[in-house]
Amino acid sequence: MMNDYSALSGYRSRQRSKKFQSSQSRIRIKAGYEFKLIAQMIEGGTFLRKRESDRTCNVRAKPINQVQTSSVMKSQVGTAEPQPKEYTKKLNFVNFFVGLFLVFSWFPETVLFQAPIIAISLSMLIASVGVFLLSFSQFRLDRRYKHVTATEKDYLVLNIPFYLMALVPGLALLGFKYMLPKFGILTAVYADGLLLIIFLFFARFPVALRLGQRAVPITDESVLSSFSGLANKMGISHVDLYSIDWRKFKIANAFQAGPSKFSVFVSNYLLENMSNEEMNAVMAHELAHAKRKHVMKISGLLLFTSIIGIDLFVVAATLGQTSIWPLISILAGFVVLFLSPQLVLRLQRKFELEADEIAVRTLGEGRPLVSALQKLMTLNLVPADRKSGTHPSVAKRIQRIEQIMS
User: Fold this and answer.
1) Best label site of 3, 184, 312, 394, fewest CB within 10 Å?
2) Is the pTM of this model over 0.85?
């Protein structure tokens, strides 16, 4: 009986040992499979895991027209997905803070208009500090996230237009307050004339931009040939094409400028990172802005609403203080000046989608433009779902292009 019991115990012990070894073997196989899967995922790509009995994995790249909002950045930058959101969040904070700082530079002229020399000096000092903070913050962020080769001095030169934008409104207010007691309602002529001069300056903005950013005409024959062919196909008689040296800032961008004489500006960093098809799509998009005269429409709307808003303030200042009409005029002026930028931004986002549609229909396909948008998003560290003031999110633009092509 003891022998039978011992034999039975030995048999059960051997069975438990076999099960344990089999379990260890399965764990090693599964661990090896998981390790292989993780290693392949690190290399980049989209994988589908099959049934447990298959023990294999498939590599499947998503077509461009099937990119989802949550996975666009994963397919483009892999493990660096949190970078664009972190970079954009910090950059938005810097721009908001410095924007308040630059707006504050207008106040010395409004408070110290009886001492214009002191007011102008304080404004210049505040604007200088604001532009320095903007340049230094951009330099630190870009050096950390984009590994730029530009120096702090380069960023200061790049932001000189913001310095001028900070000073001009304050100087205009100073002149406005100085002239109002002497000329009354005729001060509106001064204000309207100043706005018209600014409008005419932006009408010749390409010339100013060429001088400020050292833009040079593009001489590459293949690029010029493709650009001219697209312009003729879209019915645009003459458009100048320039390249801006933004390589050291790692800024990939293209834009159309000039409400009357059309010009397209492309950064050399963008030219170096785009394929020929993608570059054609970008140029078709910018030429669409010229074809529909989007810059002219935006500039005209800004000029019209600005003249109405400022003239309402002039009327309020010349009316008697015993009635309620001055208060109504001031409130109406604030409403016009506050709502007009919101209307302009909304119109600009609409124009971007319209330019995308024209570009897609001109090219006959949407794939190159989608690919270019994804590359722009990666090069500039822009999250797929981020909507700027003037542009819809890349995800929305890609979805719109897919709807056009379907």
Assistant:
1) 3
2) no
